[in-house]
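Cont'd.
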Amino acid sequence: MKSDTPLLEVKNLDVRFAVRGGDLTALRGISFSLDKGERLGLVGESGAGKSVAAFSILNLIARPGYIAGGQILFEGEDLAAMSERELRKIRGNRIAMIFQDPMMTLNPVLSIGTQMVEAIKAHRRIGTKAAREIAVGKLRKVQIPSPEKRLDQYPHELSGGMRQRVIIAIALLLDPEIIVADEPTTALDVTIQAEIMALLLDLCEQENVALMLITHDLGVVSQVTQRMLVMYSGRIIEQGPTREIINDAQHPYTQGLINALPQMGEPGARLFQIPGSMPSLKNVPSGCPFHPRCDFATDQCRQTMPEYVRSGNVDVACYEVSNLIEQEKRMQEAGS
Amino acid sequence: MLAFLVQRISQAVLVMFVISVIAFAIQDGLGDPLQEMVGMSVSMEEREALREELGLNDSMVVQYLRFAGNALQGDLGNSYFYGKPTLEVIAEHLPATLELVIGASLIIMFLSVPIGVYAAIRPQAWLAKFFMGVSTVGISIPVFLTAIVLIQIYSIGVTIEWFPEDTGWGRWLNGAFTTEGGLPSYGRGDELTHLFGTWYSGFFSTDGLMHLVLPCVSLASIMLPLFIRLIRAEMMEVLQSDYIRYARAKGLSSMRINFLHALKNTMLPVITVGGVQVGVMVAYTILTETVFQWPGVGLMFLEAITRSDIPLIVAYLMVVGLIFVITNTLVDLVYGLVNPTVKLTGKKA
Amino acid sequence: MTTATLSRWNRFRESFLWYSFKRDKVAIVSSIVLLLMVFAAVFAPLFAPTDPYDLAQIDIMNSELPPVGMSGADAAFPLGTDAQGRDMLSTILYGTRVSLLIGFGAVVLQAALGILFGLLAGYLGGRVDSILMRIADVQLSFSTLMVAIIVGAVFKASFGNLMFGEIAIYMLIFIIGVAEWPQIARTVRASVLAEKKKEYVDAAKVMGFRTNRIMFRHILPNTLSPIFVIATVQIANAIISEAALSFLGLGMPETQPSLGSLIKSGFDYIQSGSWWITLIPGLVLVVLVLVINLLGDWLRDVMNPRLYKG
Amino acid sequence: MKKLLAALVGTMALATAPVALSAEATKELKMAYDADPVTLDIHEQLSGGILQLSHMSFDPLVRWTKDLGFEGRLAESWERVDDKTMRFKLREGVKFHSGNEFTAKDVKFTYDRLKESQDFKAIFQPFSGINVIDDYTFELVTSEPFPLLLNTATYIFPLDSQFYSGETADGKKKSAIVKHGNSFASDNLSGTGPFVVKSRQQGVRMEFERFADYWDEESPGNVKKIVLTPIKENNTRVSALLSGGVDFIAPVPPTDLDRIKRDKNSELVTMSGTRIIMFHMNQERVEAFKNPKVRQAVAYAINQEGIAAKIMKGFATPAAQMSPAGYQGHNESLKPRYDVKKAQQLMKEAGYEDGFTITMMAPNNRYVNDDKIAQAAAAMLARINIKVDLKTLPKAQYWPEFDNRSGDMMLIGWHADTEDSANFFEFLTFCPEAGSGAGQYNAGNYCNPEIDALVAKANVETDLEKRSAMLQEVEKRLYDDAAFVPLHWQDLAWASKKNVKIEPILNVMNFPFLGDLVIE
């Protein structure tokens, strides 16, 4: 069901932070696209720039960050270049967001009702009573018991899970095209996580809403998303169909991530660990940023940034992989 | 709620008791009230007789027990100077001070909120820096200097000739800064409308309001800078929080984000600190009332000190202590109303 | 690169404090002015042409001379003379020293009391906390002025009047110190409550440290930054309070004037010709307090990392 | 100019009051003093404020003229019957505010009440009785020949006896004098004076209205309504005048004199006063002060002209004695003697060349520039190696310290209630004696029995020439013995708008006769 123009297309997006001693580049020319109703996963260790990517879609990067270059095309318009006034029409209305910690997302001194009604009235010319009905409908949709009572309650009166349901309801209030969810379940305890993720998944399917899910949990990505991107220190190092990447990861970093997952089977086996840690934005290594931690690192990897190369439906930026593909191609030509 | 009020009332009684004990303990250090009551040429025996009559010779404990006995029935003794029960004297002077505090608080509220919010939203704008600069200077100038300068400029009027008269702009600048004055510089004026009991208010007549202008502005000049800086600091912290970012993500207008989402959270600490400052402001009225001859409890207290009118001093200290406890209680109530996360019995830590 | 053991000075130079200090012009200018004033005040006897405390040098005949540059000025008195014929420059230098002494002294006392009570209230909580906070409330209902009147009376009763000259400074330090300690106590209590929840406090308890070791060696260092910030503002307030007390005749005696009492003694002349007797010390007072406040602001923004400036 | 006491016989012509048909009173006067009257009961306290109120709402039998002569008010004429009695003839047709007729029985009622009042008792001590002859004549009798009978008579402001007799609703005696409580007399008032008290809020505002049938038709006063507001702070009071808030203010601080002179629409009036400001040197506390040479050295070290010129800004008359010009005891020959060299030389002769340390105490809010004067004096004494530890106090704390003599040198100001020199000596230089109250304010513990005897003789000497000579001799002796250190007599100053003609109604005792005030 690939339509010709994707719903959302990000073209080599650059995001920098104006901090003392020069700018730090948080996103280094990332490009990806999202189709209608598609579920895309963004994966990577913390500090890879996943959240920055999420927030830059709606240009919500807090000072001192700013979009330095690239385009974010949504329904033919470039969000990166859009004025605050027009961008406001899209935020919450066409593209909605879900934050990580439900404890902090809702305003502690305003009632749930107020915070829902105001979202509706910001984009629709509608009376408060009608808005409240929509809100109650959405709350029922996220399976919150006795929704009418909830409207007059305050955030501190609800549990974490309950609050995240409210936030999902708010995201769906205006039937958005896309929901950007920044680690929606990380702050919840494990039992509630699965419940909330399942809820989010069903609602996106029912409402045919595209979902951009940011997480560091490969298990969630593999079950929920159709395509996924793997990010490392501000670059996408591998992107493609989730199934393909999970089963046959190309990039050494992705393989490391997958091997780090606790497998069922072998009890007592030591978990695989990727040596070293994610470089800070202040001193990003030259060439391929992963090279200091990569077993296959060559001089070429250390000097220049590898280009993307397609392997199956997966784009990978790694010299090792591109060399392997070269050899296979040569063998096929030699063989045929 | 009831438990909360009972706790506060008991605190009020404790505060008043402590104050009255301290005030009585320092009685003789405050000077001899007799001086004000008798002419110079009155002989020693006459003074002795009078001292006896007033009970000044009794031991301090006896005097205090007599005082405490009366105090329980609401009689805080007679003022030597006014010859009337101290509570009556205070009741006559309290409205004037309260009007000063109300006027100053209004000025503070209507100025500090917009300026504080603006300075928080655009910390780099030159206007914000200008306001912050003025507020820092404002805090550094003692109130009696501000008061005198205000009187000189706005009630007596000052003619400026610093700029060269012969040039156009010089003349214009001189004209701009020269003031004829005209604002009343003392007292509450004589068109006061009677509200109830001893409360004669200046708010309801133009003459009354004119008299209120200068004193309220100088009283406000002490607290205004403090509030501006407080609101700015709290607002900047709130603007960094997640729920503000979420509000932006919901596509709300910046007006709504700043003046509802952010401001409501900002006002919480401002209310608690503000409440305390109102209590402190009552003390600053002493300086303002002295300069403007404003017939409030501040001036009354200062004159009572110069006349060592001890019953009035003790009564005043107790009333101010009570006012402070009342403002504290009101602040907590308002805080409870505004902040839903707080139940009225305890205060959120 | 192996991190050589950075000397304390290097660590300071590297720190965020020094970085933002260099970039903040206001902070630089204010600290220079403050250092100049403190330096001039501390070495007043060297800079001051005359000793204002030695009455023999004062001649009533040259009272109310205007500062140099105005008609009738006398070069011997660059800033003119006051109503007594005392040289304004030297009196202001000595006065600034007295005011600074009172400001710093009072704040040291406030900090000592405030930290002690704040720590106790915050850490121990429960009854100790409510008692201390009630005392703080009672204390706050007494403004500095009333405390001054009461303590002044008590001092007079105990020391008698004649010694007043020498003990005036200590009395004022005691008064402003006692009157304002709740401000610091409340700040300390707030930050102790926040720190108390943190794991390192549990860790210290688990290691079996005694309570006051935990309080002073562990919790206190972490609450230093708000104390430092409020202390600078309190110094400015202390100097202003002393000026207010002098205005009401409860501050320093005329023979050993502080800035506040200088302003007070010149107050009657402000609208009648010799305005400089009040305005010059007034200006010095405002600049001194302004500079301290500006440093306080800068310190608060630097010490409070969450308050990023764009 | 010698003060001429009224002739023994003969009525004092009323001509001295400016003759003009009493203008139709229409004007309103807004005025500000530094304090408002403590009470409406004019016998409750003997103070300037109360006497000013008395002159507004009551009339005395006799009052001082500008040149310290006497002018009959309610007493039309008086004559001396013998050296112990004076007969007075009262004016007829005078009404009280309450409408009652004024007769001699009101004078008797007032006399008895004065004898009872704690403050006035001492002044009327020489009087033994009063006998009413008929409705309009009575006689005052003194136990001994008393030359100051008329001086004291200026304190008799007849009260409306009917109004002040009987009991109030709650059974309290209407005529009771209650020092600190709330008596009928302290809130209600009925006198014969030009102004009726219309409303009063203590410490805030007082309103007077002209008495419709006031007896003195010739009074030129055209003021219908007066609003008195007390303004304590000097600065604020002067600003109130300059900003047009009030029309008449008193007192005016010396520092603001030229500011008011420069202001085009206000007018300043000053007069040399009769209040002496002086220092005592306590002989019991400081051994050196027992030696007259040391006392004279101190006298020579103090520069009265300098203080008067610089601190008082010319607003005081330097003094070398207690009695101001115009008093019987004023001795022209005594002049201020400032000479630092002579002072140092005297100190050497007395063996105190390297000086000694003393404590000095002065009030800081009682007399004009009192704390500044003390500072200046301390600086002057430092010149002759007398090191001074100065302590200034608010008046309420100062007077208890004065009573127990806790300072080596103490500042005091004194105004003679009887406008006569003897009063100074009785209170300030007589040998202190608890019983009789003599020397009650003698903080120097100076004691010279011959001088005391000379003054006692003068007090019973009715021949004015002899009496003046005696009193001037006393001043000379005190001067030579340097019993105290006189500084200056404090001038009086009032200020008003140009159209308020205050000059004619002002006098040295600072009792403005507002009834005769004309506003253009």
